[in-house]
């Protein structure tokens, strides 16, 4: 592809008036612009179950970082501190300016404990809390921040070529490609992130050995066959010096080690299996996962109930069951669910994950394919989920209500309105609410909810377009809802200001 001028290649990046070190406001603004491009990527994923699970790891890490003083009150308030999930199968994680962190499904899929994911997130959190990105700017003051921002997008696009928007920002010619290597953190920064990250994760109750076990696993796999699947190792090389330093720090922490991880091993196994399935886009791989539910010739259709499976076996069954449901094979999916339920896991967290898998299966499978008992189970699960305080349960139930009557939809609308009032940045909740309003023949409210979803993903121009559409729909409706129109007018003024702010250069 021919090189293009930098200005033409970075239409969504801010123009910065100063190439000096980034202030907190500048770094947040740059991070917002990069995140806005990532939100538009087809690889961006907001899976409610994985989101809730990762938050059980991320929130204790953030709280520990604040208790330790690694994240100051000002930094906690000014930065986004948001975790973005990509369905990319490569093993990668990254820190972005302004408190955004990224995690690929491929990394979650190969992990064997919550401690390993905590180690990765704590390490990336430390890069942000120690202002390593701003320090890179200090060292390269001859390069304007928007150039480095485009280079960050380019580096991400190299591992997500399907994202046309991010890829277009990366087309800056040979100079940018040659400079991308300069964005890697220095060895001193990596050691500092190791030290701070280890302190954060152990303070949060996770086992520090997760750091070493994950890197050992990645290095062993990469030595056998990299093929570009392990970009995390290229940007975070685990040198012998770093490994020895981590081992020494772990030895010092031995007396303080937690007896048990705060997250049950079976729960992590289920979520790693879920990541494995959701990262697959081809039916062949899903068929291979689902095929493990089919017993070999002469084998029983279900395992003996008395045998308690380990986390690995539970994960295999979960992946096979979800894969069968995504392939719309009801008999096979329900068979897998029965096998999972027959094991009767002891801990409540694992039981809850299996309940939501049950609900998800009933949503994915054709209603006419469900036995009468499963239809009744769906009604019971919906009633419980709509009253749940868990985001995943509420969103699953709200999406399910679209296939049911208006009474259930109205209840889902009320619950989602309560959630969005407390969490206005929840884009998926707004988008689900928009679908419910459309089902209830409320196009004005649907358009406003769509606008809020766009705004939650930092797309102020898109939000403005939907709000203007909502106002137009309201004015042409038979009976004008003056309260709704006043809300739209107020939101229009707010979003117009956001659009103007995004167009200004960062000073």
Automatic annotation (TrEMBL):
GO cellular component, one term: membrane
Stored Pfam families: Peptidase_M48 (PF01435)
Name listed for the protein in its UniProt record: Putative Zn-dependent protease, contains TPR repeats
Family matches, as InterPro entries: Mito/Outer_Membr_Metalloprot (IPR051156), Peptidase_M48 (IPR001915)
UniProt keyword DNA-binding present: no
Native organism: Serpentinimonas raichei
Annotated coiled-coil segments of the chain: none
GO MF annotation list: metal ion binding; metalloendopeptidase activity
Cofactor(s) required for function per UniProt: Zn(2+)
Gene3D superfamilies documented for this protein: Metalloproteases ('zincins'), catalytic domain (3.30.2010.10)
Keyword Zinc carried by entry: yes
UniProt entry keywords in alphabetical sequence: Hydrolase, Metal-binding, Metalloprotease, Protease, Zinc
GO BP terms in the entry: proteolysis involved in protein catabolic process
Superkingdom as given in the UniProt entry: Bacteria
Residues covered by the Peptidase M48 domain: 54-248
């Amino acid at each position: 592809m021919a090189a293009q001028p930098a200005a033409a290649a970075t239409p969504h990046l801010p123009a910065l008036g100063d190439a000096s070190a980034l202030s907190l406001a500048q770094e947040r603004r740059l991070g917002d612009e990069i995140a806005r491009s990532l939100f538009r990527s087809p690889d961006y994923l907001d899976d409610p179950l994985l989101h809730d699970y990762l938050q059980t790891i991320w929130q204790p890490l953030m709280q520990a970082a604040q208790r330790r003083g690694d994240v100051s009150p000002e930094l906690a308030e000014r930065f986004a501190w948001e975790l973005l999930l990509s369905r990319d199968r490569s093993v990668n994680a990254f820190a972005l300016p302004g408190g955004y962190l990224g995690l690929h499904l491929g990394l979650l899929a190969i992990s064997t404990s919550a401690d390993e994911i905590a180690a990765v997130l704590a390490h990336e959190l430390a890069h942000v809390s120690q202002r390593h990105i701003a320090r890179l700017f200090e060292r390269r003051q001859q390069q304007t921040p928007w150039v480095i921002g485009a280079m960050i997008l380019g580096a991400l696009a190299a591992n997500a070529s399907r994202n046309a928007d991010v890829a277009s920002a990366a087309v800056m010619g040979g100079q940018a490609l040659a400079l991308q290597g300069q964005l890697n953190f220095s060895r001193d920064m990596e050691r500092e992130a190791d030290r701070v990250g280890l302190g954060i994760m152990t303070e949060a109750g996770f086992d520090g050995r997760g750091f070493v076990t994950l890197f050992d696993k990645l290095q062993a796999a990469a030595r056998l066959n990299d093929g570009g699947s392990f970009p995390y190792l290229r940007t975070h090389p685990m040198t012998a010096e770093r490994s020895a330093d981590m081992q020494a720090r772990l030895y010092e922490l031995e007396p303080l080690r937690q007896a048990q991880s705060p997250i049950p091993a079976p729960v992590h196994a289920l979520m790693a299996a879920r990541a494995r399935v959701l990262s697959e886009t081809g039916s062949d791989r899903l068929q291979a996962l689902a095929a493990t539910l089919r017993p070999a010739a002469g084998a029983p259709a279900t395992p003996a109930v008395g045998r308690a499976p380990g986390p690995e076996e539970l994960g295999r069954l979960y992946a096979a069951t979800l894969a069968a449901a995504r392939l719309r094979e009801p008999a096979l999916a329900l068979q897998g669910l029965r096998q999972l339920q027959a094991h009767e896991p002891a801990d409540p967290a694992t039981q809850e994950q299996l309940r939501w898998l049950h609900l998800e299966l009933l949503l994915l499978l054709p209603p006419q394919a469900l036995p009468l008992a499963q239809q009744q189970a769906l009604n019971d699960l919906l009633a419980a989920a709509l009253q749940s305080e868990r985001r995943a349960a509420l969103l699953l139930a709200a999406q399910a209500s679209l296939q049911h009557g208006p009474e259930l939809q109205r209840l889902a609308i009320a619950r989602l309105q309560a959630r969005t009032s407390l969490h206005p940045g929840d884009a998926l909740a707004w988008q689900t609410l928009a679908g419910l309003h459309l089902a209830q023949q409320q196009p004005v409210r649907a358009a406003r909810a769509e606008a809020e979803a766009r705004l939650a993903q930092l797309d102020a121009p898109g939000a403005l377009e939907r709000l203007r559409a909502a106002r137009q729909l309201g004015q042409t409706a038979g009976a004008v809802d003056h309260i709704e129109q006043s809300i739209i007018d107020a939101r229009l003024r707010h979003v117009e200001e956001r659009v103007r702010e995004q167009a200004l250069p960062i000073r």
